[in-house]
Amino acid sequence: MKQRIFSGIQPSGNLHLGNYLGAISQWLTLQDEYEAFFCVVDLHAITVPQDPAELRRKTLEIAKIYLASGIDPMKSTLFVQSHVQAHTELGWILNTIARFSDLEKMTQFKDKSAKSEKETVGIGLFDYPVLMAGDILLYDTNVVPVGKDQMQHVELTRTLGRRFNERFGETFVIPEGRVSKEGQVIMALDDPTKKMSKSAESEYNYIALSDDAETVRKKIRKAVTDSGSEIVYADNKPALKNLINIYSLLSHKTTADIEAMYVGSGYGDFKTDLAEVIVSFLTPFQERLKNISDEEVLAVLKAGAEKAKGIAEVKMKQVRERVGLLA
Ligand code: ATP
Ligand code: LTN
After folding, report:
1. Is 317 inside any structural domain?
2. How far is it, in rounded angstroms, from Cα 7 to Cα 38?
3. Based on the structure, what is the number of domains in the chain?
4. Is this prediction's pTM over 0.90?
């Protein structure tokens, strides 16, 4: 029996290179080895206000991005979270064992809520890691491939899974988080101390997967660099290190090879080439994306939801019984 992986991305904002290199590119290699579930987590996206029509459009777009990236529906199960009601049901049940003190510690909640007035921070934003735990535990997931920023939520999932098992008897597999080595965190182009983020204020923070060649070139030209002029991969040059990481991950050259290629040249040459490396990745990707029809992706999502429902329902029967809900 193959082990299972589960992961998801929210249909909010513009997907960027950080999402691709931190999450999706890891999934591509894992889908051969594992029984894989990749979800478009729309119920997570509504923890912040979304325009309904735009949310529907984004949900389809994320699913198309999965396909255009090479997630193969013959190997992996792709579906939309809200199509499988068990996610909200398990999320609620886990709420009853999650503690305020568990959630209060979550860095992402602290960061996101710090940006708004305290009185307006929604419960959904606070509670969302519990829903995420439900996503993962429903499928007896063994491994959760995510970017490093999500590891704290995977830790919480483990805590809630264990707590449930202790109180109600062995029910859930306790999953492990997995981050890819280099893609751990892609930093913002305009500030190497922050992660590249789709909810960033400035579009110079990220390269969107939908950026055209001219936009990529402009954004890379404007990307901040460190003092000095040589191309070296070092911790005291965080901006450059991030750019070399992106170069390396997309070109499959090692960071040492890249350093060697630019001995004697400056940031100008390096940035020009980096922009072309990104464009050569994005152009065929965008071409594939454009050719995926709504009908095609809807059919994949429908089949995916059917398969996911079957598995989730078996688990929920067991959960309801353990908790004492009348059959
Ligand atoms: P936001 O910044 O608005 O919270 P996000 O860009 O982090 O959104 P998510 O939907 O939260 O996007 O993340 C989807 C996946 O991409 C997660 O696995 C996350 O860890 C990964 N990811 C997001 N940003 C980065 C990044 N800068 N570097 C590496 N991985 C990332
Ligand atoms: N919270 C994650 C998205 C997410 C997820 C999941 C990731 C929701 N449910 C289950 C892995 C497994 C984020 O990236 N913001």
Report:
1. yes
2. 5
3. 2
4. yes
